[in-house]
């Protein structure tokens, strides 16, 4: 056990170094030329280094500082209460540490006063949320490492793994959001957790026995980050695997029970708000029409329905070029004929998850390139599995060179800033 923990600790340390190398280098990327290039405040560390404090971050920090704000009518982050409470749990200890550093003189007051006035009392919460970014991204890297060797049967190349990890940690999402208060690091963790859960449900009867508890846990995670709702279809897939080759009444009751347990945390939160005389507010649905636009589309005449769906689908496709290099590489290695034998099960499983994730993104009704990067982890795993057909160090060397070139391009390119 101690040996296993030591291995994980050494790997976590190595991946921490990778995260720092990538994200610190982003601080020296080109500075925005105008304030129209970003939403928030650009903080200059030096003449040549800085980062953007995203405009959404202030509300996250204020709510973490005063979590009772979540009980106010129309509160913007009311749909993600557990993420706010995470910010509270981390932010207050960091704030006390910052205050201690200031009292001891190790953190000069003049340095804090250089921050924008509204950020000065929130410095501890800012640092706390950045630490959460690090933890989420580190968890994604460790989970990717585990899935890489599991899906490749332990035969994957170390150099291929390193290259794929660079792609995962160096991209426009980490560039724009790692050093700010936001939830975008979940973009990488959620698909990998779905893949891990799906594999466990496929291969472990004990996990299928835990479906009710997993449904409750998934419902709680949906109060941290909205995309965790995709855990429900994965759990229903686990119930389908558990069926006795028939679609009995008991099977459908099990599906209904799992769905209820999954929604129970949200229903409880809505009920708690009702007790305080507050109507639940979902900012993403109200402001951007996320998912709810589908209900409105069905209420239109058929021609109007087709026009609206087509328009939104086109808007989604406009974001896809952001991950075009990975789509192209995945398509290339999948379609390129090879004689080497390869199990199709991992590819079928990953492709199913990719379709689930793509359908969810296409149905959101709110499209940004940073959201489409949620497809990146699954594409990288597909590439990893197919590259088993290309053994040898040369494949890993070429892919590693491409990853390093990709990172350099991310550093020197202009933007994105938010």
From TrEMBL:
Top-level division of the source organism's lineage: Bacteria
Coiled-coil stretches: none
This protein's UniProt keywords: Membrane, Transmembrane, Transmembrane helix
Membrane-crossing residue ranges in chain numbering: 12-29, 122-147, 159-179, 214-239, 251-272, 316-335, 347-365, 371-388, 395-412
Protein name from the UniProt record: Glycosyltransferase RgtA/B/C/D-like domain-containing protein
Organism: Hymenobacter endophyticus
């Amino acid at each position: 056990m101690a040996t296993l923990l030591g291995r994980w600790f050494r790997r976590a340390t190595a991946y921490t170094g990778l995260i720092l190398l990538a994200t610190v280098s982003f601080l020296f990327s080109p500075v925005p030329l105008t304030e129209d290039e970003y939403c928030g405040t650009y903080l200059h560390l030096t003449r040549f280094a800085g980062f953007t404090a995203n405009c959404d971050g202030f509300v996250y920090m204020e709510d973490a500082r005063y979590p009772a704000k979540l009980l106010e009518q129309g509160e913007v982050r009311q749909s993600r209460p557990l993420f706010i409470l995470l910010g509270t749990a981390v932010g207050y200890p960091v704030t006390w540490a910052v205050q201690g550093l200031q009292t001891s003189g190790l953190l000069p007051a003049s340095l804090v006063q250089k921050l924008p006035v509204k950020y000065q009392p929130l410095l501890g919460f800012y640092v706390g949320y950045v630490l959460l970014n690090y933890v989420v991204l580190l968890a994604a890297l460790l989970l990717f490492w585990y899935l890489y060797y599991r899906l490749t049967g332990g035969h994957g190349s170390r150099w291929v793994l390193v290259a794929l990890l660079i792609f995962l940690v160096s991209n426009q999402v980490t560039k724009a959001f790692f050093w700010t208060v936001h939830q975008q690091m979940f973009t990488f963790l959620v698909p990998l957790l779905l893949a891990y859960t799906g594999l466990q449900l496929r291969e472990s009867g004990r996990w299928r026995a835990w479906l009710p508890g997993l449904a409750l846990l998934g419902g709680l995670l949906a109060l941290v980050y909205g995309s965790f709702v995709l855990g429900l279809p994965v759990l229903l897939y686990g119930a389908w695997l558990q069926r006795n080759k028939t679609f009995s009444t008991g099977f459908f009751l099990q599906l209904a029970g799992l769905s209820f347990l999954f929604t129970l945390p949200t229903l409880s939160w809505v009920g708690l708000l009702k007790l305080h005389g507050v109507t639940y507010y979902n900012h993403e649905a109200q402001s951007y029409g996320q998912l709810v636009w589908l209900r409105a589309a069905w209420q239109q005449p058929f021609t109007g329905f087709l026009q609206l769906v087509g328009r939104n689908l086109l808007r989604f496709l406009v974001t896809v070029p952001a991950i075009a290099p990975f789509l192209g590489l995945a398509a290339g290695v999948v379609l390129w004929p090879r004689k080497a034998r390869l199990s199709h099960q991992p590819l079928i499983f990953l492709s199913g998850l990719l379709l689930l994730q793509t359908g969810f993104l296409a149905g959101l009704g709110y499209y940004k390139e940073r959201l489409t990067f949620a497809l990146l982890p699954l594409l990288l795993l597909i590439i990893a599995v197919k590259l088993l057909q290309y053994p040898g160090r040369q494949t890993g060397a070429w892919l590693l060179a491409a990853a390093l070139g990709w990172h350099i391009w991310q550093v020197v390119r202009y933007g994105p800033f938010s």
